């Protein structure tokens, strides 16, 4: 999704939840600032759907929760909330909340020109404060390319760039798949 900053009142997290329930659009809440979420491209939407469907099928007999862009994530140790394109949590603590999840092991963001720098930079710095997060997937919507930020066993983040012909490995949910599965029948620039 594309994030656009507008003039909104400064709200506490509690006020944000009450206010957002009355809005037609979704809004991220970062450091007291509100950012409206606007629509993405057709490719963006189709790619996000493919990930949530793939995760749902793979994890259907587990206790994991698969999130689409309607499920808000509370960033660990903050009062910041975002709407990634897809997420997975297998943490039992997330079964006790109704408005958001806090402990995803996997987050997917489909990139757009307007959000790519933010998704790779500031947003990832906030997400990686979560000790449970293992995989952060950044997915191009214009070419066959996916970057995986994976936290290894010693807690270091490594970046793996996948391109045409590669098989993506998500250790957080024990899933491997060919990159072409994400991009089939899409019109790419």
The structure class reads: alpha+beta
In terms of per-residue confidence, which ranges show pLDDT below 50 for 5 or more consecutive residues?
Answer: none
CATH class type: Alpha Beta
How much of the residues is beta strand, in percent?
A: 25-35%
Radius of gyration: 16 Å
Number of helices: 5
Give the CATH superfamily.
Answer: tt1808, chain A
Count of folded domains? 1
Strand arrangement, largest sheet?
A: 4-7-8-9-10-11
Q: The CATH topology, please?
A: tt1808, chain A
Mean pLDDT reading: 91
- Let me know the largest β-sheet: 6 strands, mixed
User: Order of helices and strands, N to C?
Assistant: EHEEHEEEEEHHEEEEEH
Tell me the overall shape: globular
Organism: Crocosphaera chwakensis CCY0110
Pfam family, one: Uma2
Protein name: Putative restriction endonuclease domain-containing protein
InterPro entries: Nuclease_put_TT1808, Restrct_endonuc-II-like, Uma2
Write up what this structure looks like:
With 189 residues, the chain is of the alpha+beta class. It has one domain: tt1808, chain A, CATH 3.90.1570.10. It is built from five helices and 13 strands. A six-stranded mixed sheet has the order 4-7-8-9-10-11. It has a three-stranded antiparallel sheet with strand order 1-3-2. Strands 5-6 form a two-stranded antiparallel sheet. Strand 12 and strand 13 form a beta hairpin. It is globular, with a radius of gyration of 16 Å. The relative contact order is 0.14. The model has no long low-confidence stretch (mean pLDDT 91). This is Putative restriction endonuclease domain-containing protein. InterPro entries: Nuclease_put_TT1808 (IPR012296), Restrct_endonuc-II-like (IPR011335), Uma2 (IPR008538). Pfam families: Uma2.
């Amino acid at each position: 999704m594309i994030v656009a900053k507008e003039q909104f009142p400064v709200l506490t997290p509690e006020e944000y939840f009450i206010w957002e329930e009355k809005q037609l659009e979704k809004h991220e809440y970062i450091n007291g600032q509100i950012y409206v979420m606007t629509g993405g491209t057709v490719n963006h939407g189709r790619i996000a759907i493919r990930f949530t469907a793939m995760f749902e099928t793979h994890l259907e007999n587990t206790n994991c929760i698969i999130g689409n862009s309607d499920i808000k994530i509370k960033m660990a140790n903050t009062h910041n909330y975002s709407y990634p394109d897809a997420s997975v949590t297998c943490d039992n603590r997330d079964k006790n909340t109704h408005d958001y999840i806090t402990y995803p092991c996997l987050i997917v963001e489909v990139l757009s020109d307007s959000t790519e720098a933010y998704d790779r930079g500031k947003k990832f710095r906030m997400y990686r404060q979560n000790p449970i997060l293992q995989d952060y997937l950044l997915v191009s919507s214009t070419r066959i390319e996916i970057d995986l930020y994976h936290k290894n066993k010693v807690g270091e983040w490594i970046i793996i760039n996948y391109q045409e012909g590669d098989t993506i490995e998500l250790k957080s949910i024990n899933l491997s798949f060919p990159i072409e599965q994400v991009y089939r029948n899409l019109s790419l620039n």
